[in-house]
Amino acid sequence: MHDLKKSRFTIEMPIKADMETYMALYQTMTGAFVLVPESDWSDIFNPSFDLSDPELIDDLRDQGFLVKADVDETVVFEHWKQQHVHNYDTITSKVNVTRKCNNRCTYCILDYEAREMTPDTARAMDEFYIDTINYRRPFYVRDDYLGGEPLLNTRVLMASAGRRFAHCRKNNIDYAFTITTNGVLLTPAIVSKMKAVGLAGIRVSLAGPAQVHDPLRPSATQAKTYDTIIKNLKSVSGMTPITIECQYDSGATDYRLMPEMYDDFKKHDIAINDIHFTPILKKRGECRFNTGLGDPQIALDLMKQAREYGYCSEREAPASLCRADFKAMFVFDTDGSIIPCPGLQEGEMAYGHVFKGVDFIAESQLLTRKLPEKCLDQCDLLPICMGGCRQQALVYQGDFAGIDCQYDTQRLFLDDYIREMAVGALAQDEEAQEEEAQEEVTCMEKAA
C-alpha cells in the first residue's frame, strides 16, 4: 500500500450515469474538481493496490485530494490561510459614503444615522488607500460604494471613484467599482457619469414583487417604492450590469411570489445580469425577523428558479468567509474610521483611521479568533468558512470573534454544486465522444 490518505478537505459524491458509477471529488481548500470511476477511487485505498495508474495518483496529489499519511492538515490549513489572508493581488474596499437613507427598511441591521462622509475625509481616505495600492502593487482594485443610500452623497462618491480610477489607470492597474443602492434615486445621467470613472455595475435591493417589497422596504415617509425602482431600472437597463440583491423572510412564505418580480422585469424589458438571495438576518436589539437562515433549501430553490428565468450567472462553490479576516479588504466609514465590517455602526470596532493609518495592536486584538477543535481539526468545510460571519456571531453571541457555523447550509449548496459540475462534465464527455465518432465516420467515408 502506498503511503497516501484521502485529504480531510475532500468531499466525495457518487454519481450514477449509463450503468456506471463515478465519484465526483471536490477539494474545499484548492477548489479542485475531478470526476473518476468509483472503482478507480476505491482501488487507491485497497491494501493490494499496485499503483498500476501512477498518473492518476499524481493528478490527485497535485490537486490536493490525496496527501501523505503523516501530513498534519491542520498545519496545512494554517499555512494556506496565511497565504490568502495576506494576498494583495486584488485590493477591495467597501465605502460608507453616507449613513443617511431615504428608505426605512423594516429589517435594516443598521440604526438610522444622519451622517455622511465629507469631501475632506474622502480625500484623506483616498490618499490612505492609494498609498496602500502603491505599496502593495495589486493587479486589480475593486470597490463598492454603499450606505445608507450612496446616491444621497453622489458628489463625494464621484470624487472618490474619480481619484482612484485616475491613479489606477495611470499605473496600469485594473480598476472597477460598483454601488449598492435601493434604486429609488437611479437615473441614466448618474449612471453615465459614474461609468466615466470606472463603474462596472449596480447592485439594487429588492425584496420581491410589489406586494412583498413595499411593506418591507418603504420610503422614509412610509410610501411605496417598488414601482419607482422598476421605472428607474428600466431607464438604466443596458447601460451597466444590474444585480438584484434580494433579501427574503425565511419565516414567511411570500418568497414563493418571486416569479411575479421576474415577470415585471420581462414586461418592462429590464436586463438583469444576476440575482443574489439572502435571508433577512437577525439584527442586534429588538428584531421581528428572528428566523435567520431558516431552511437552506429555500435559498437553493430560489437560486435555481431564478436561473430558470435566466437571471443567475455561472455558479461558484459556496463560501461564508468574513472579509474582516483578509488584509486586502477594507471598510471605510463615514467618519474616516477603518472598521472590520460594513454592518457595524459608525466607527464601531475601528482599528484605524484614514488620517492616522492602521492601529496594528488594535487590529491584532480585534481579529483574534480561536477556532474550536471541531472546526480547526475536523471540519471538511473549514477553508470555505473559517468561522463564518463575524457580524452574526456578534448578534447571537455578543462576540465579534465568535463562530457562526452554517455547516448544513454550506453542505447543501456545495453538494448541489458538485452534482451540477459532475453532470456538466459527463455531458461534455458524451459530446466529445459523439464528435470523435462522427470524425471516424467521416474519415471512413472519405477513404471509401
Detailed description of the structure:
The protein is α/β, with parallel strands linked by helices and 448 residues long. It has two domains: 4-71 and 411-447, no CATH class; 88-358, Aldolase class I (TIM Barrel). 39% of the residues lie in helices and 17% in strands. The protein contains 14 helices and 14 strands. Strand 6, helix 4 and strand 7 form a beta-alpha-beta unit. The longest helix has 41 residues, at 407-447. The chain is globular.
What are the SSEs and their pairings?
Elements: E1 4-6, E2 10-17, E3 20-27, E4 33-37, H1 38-44, H2 54-62, E5 66-68, H3 73-85, E6 90-96, H4 119-136, E7 140-146, H5 154-170, E8 174-181, H6 188-195, E9 199-206, H7 210-216, H8 226-236, E10 242-248, H9 258-267, E11 274-279, H10 296-308, E12 329-332, E13 352-353, E14 357-358, H11 360-366, H12 373-378, H13 390-397, H14 407-447
Any descriptors?
448 residues, 3-stranded antiparallel beta sheet, 2 domains, TIM Barrel, alpha/beta, 14 strands, 7-stranded parallel beta sheet, single chain
Strand content: 15-25%
User: Helix and strand string, N-terminal first?
Assistant: EEEEHHEHEHEHEHEHHEHEHEEEHHHH
The first-level CATH class of the largest domain is given as Alpha Beta
| Low-confidence segments | none
Describe what is shown at a glance.
The chain has 448 residues and is an alpha/beta fold.
